[in-house]
Predict the 3D structure of the following.
Amino acid sequence: MKKVICINNEGVDLEFNVGEEYEVEREFDTTYIVTNRLGNKHTVFKTHFKSVEESETKA
């Protein structure tokens, strides 16, 4: 399953912490549906998150 890292939680529920990894349930053009630590699903804008693969290749 694809994972994303929170890069900016401004305007996003505080249940997401910057730098933490979350599982993606579905991906759309501009948003992800992700599950947080509490098991709650949220629709979040891609501008607030980046894929784990992208961050690993840049490091």
The chain has one domain: 3-55.
